[in-house]
């Protein structure tokens, strides 16, 4: 699987774990009163900052300060009774300034309105950072437990996505290439039919292998839940989920953008290298000139591939070859096929499966260019 696809699948799994863990953590925090404690910490910080501002910034008397702080404590106590206590900053500032304006001169109230927002911002930052840190740690712990319980190991998932029976896949791909070559060269319809049946069977095997179920998840068979690698993979999943679902949604958006860009570049490249005429893809005139193949050492002249037909599904190219020049020796068609494949692969696909020269083209070249081997 492409590395971008692997990253996208892994990110989706982490988002799912993070969302579930965040909901669970939120319920647990409500049950144990963690939110209320966080609110109390913020209230203590605000009261202290307001007290210092009243004394040092606007020189309120003790009686004036006590009046403002009393009103402030009453407002905070009212909000604390709620299931999820929260006090909006504008409500807080309006309450403080309204109380201050009743016991002081307008100039002092105006000065307080200027300096108080910065002091409140300090408390917001301190309380928010502390709350997010504690919440992130709790989400990571819950996510780790979820990963261990449901067997969601990042390492196992990456291994399954990147190594889907690589040896079997390579073997099947080699067999498919060989069968395609035989099918192109076969003239007998009976033999061609048999080859087609075998080729279809190999393609089905490859499809089944590519869609093989991952050995991760609660119903995965043969999981060694004592291995260090499995435990580390689950803990890693929990730690990554602790960064939060919003963070991973941003990463997913970036990965999807990269994937779309990669596909667009691939499409543009293919469109620029191929002309479609009467249903057959062929190189344009400039591409034909650029794709002229210098023949192997000891031979003068060159070969020009033409009438190129590229099949993206099988990742193979069928083409004719025009020869220019005269060879100093004869050699095998396999040498030419190998050279064509090396030259054309970068223009179509770095993992080009095969290049098949059409039999009619080979027959025209055979008298003077190829040996009988």
Notes on the protein architecture:
With 373 residues, this protein is of the alpha+beta class. The protein folds into 3 domains: 1-164 and 223-271, no CATH class; 165-211; 280-369, no CATH class. The protein is 70% helix and 8% strand. A hairpin with a 7-residue loop joins strand 3 and strand 4 (302-311). Helix 1 (3-32) runs antiparallel to helix 10 (245-273) and helix 4 (89-103) packs antiparallel against helix 5 (106-150). Mean pLDDT is 76; it is low at 275-292.
Uncertain segments are: 275-292
Task: Round the mean pLDDT to the nearest integer and report it.
Answer: 76
Structural class by secondary-structure content: alpha+beta
Q: What spatial form do the alpha-carbon principal axes imply? A: elongated
Cα gyration radius (Å): 36 Å
**Counted beta strands:** 6
Per DSSP, the total helix count is: 13
Supply the number of structural domains: 3
The largest β sheet comes out as: 4 strands, mixed
Spell out the helices and strands N to C: HHHHHHHHHHEEHEEEHEH
Spatially, the strands of the biggest sheet line up as 3-4-5-6
């Amino acid at each position: 699987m492409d590395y971008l696809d692997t990253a996208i699948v892994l990110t989706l799994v982490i988002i799912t774990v993070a969302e579930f863990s965040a909901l669970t953590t939120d319920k647990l925090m409500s049950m144990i009163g963690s939110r209320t404690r966080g609110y109390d910490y913020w209230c203590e910080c605000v009261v202290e900052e307001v007290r210092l501002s009243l004394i040092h910034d606007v020189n309120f008397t003790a009686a004036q300060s006590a009046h403002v702080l009393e009103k402030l404590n009453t407002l905070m106590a009212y909000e604390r009774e709620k299931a999820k206590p929260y006090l909006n900053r504008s409500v807080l500032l309006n309450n403080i300034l309204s109380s201050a304006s009743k016991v002081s001169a307008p100039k002092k109230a105006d000065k307080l309105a200027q300096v108080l927002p910065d002091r409140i911002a300090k408390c917001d930052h301190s309380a928010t950072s502390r709350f997010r840190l504690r919440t992130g740690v709790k989400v990571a712990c819950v996510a780790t437990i979820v990963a261990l319980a449901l067997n969601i190991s990042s390492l196992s998932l990456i291994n399954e996505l990147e190594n889907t029976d690589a040896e079997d896949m390579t073997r099947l791909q080699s067999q498919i290439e060989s069968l395609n070559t035989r099918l192109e060269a076969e003239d007998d319809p009976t033999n061609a039919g048999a080859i087609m049946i075998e080729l279809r069977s190999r393609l089905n095997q490859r499809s089944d292998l590519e869609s093989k179920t991952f050995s991760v998840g609660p119903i995965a068979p043969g999981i060694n839940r004592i291995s260090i690698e499995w435990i580390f993979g689950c803990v890693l999943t929990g730690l990554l989920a602790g960064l939060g679902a919003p963070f991973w949604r941003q990463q997913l958006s970036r990965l999807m953008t990269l994937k779309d860009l990669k596909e667009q570049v691939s499409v543009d490249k293919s469109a620029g290298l191929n002309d479609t005429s009467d249903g057959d893809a062929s190189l344009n005139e400039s591409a034909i000139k650029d794709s002229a193949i210098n023949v192997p050492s000891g031979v003068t002249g060159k070969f020009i591939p033409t009438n190129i037909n590229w099949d993206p599904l099988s990742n193979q190219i069928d083409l004719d070859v025009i020869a220019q020049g005269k060879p100093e020796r004869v050699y095998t068609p396999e040498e030419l096929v190998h050279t064509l494949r090396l030259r054309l692969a970068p223009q179509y696909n770095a993992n080009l499966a095969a290049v098949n020269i059409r039999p009619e083209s080979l027959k025209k070249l055979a008298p003077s260019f190829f040996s009988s081997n």
